[in-house]
Write a structure and sequence with these properties.
Layout: H1 3-29, H2 31-40
Amino acid sequence: MTAGKYLGLSGAAMLMAAGTGAAFAGWIGHAPEILASLGQSGLGWCF
């Protein structure tokens, strides 16, 4: 592989990591409501 491909792959990995981090941060803000609704619907066993 050339240096350009490595640079492109590392850039894509960084963007994916940033997107995953942003999604997780958004989920954390709503975690209590999500877990409560899972418990009420009977799906709390998976946690």
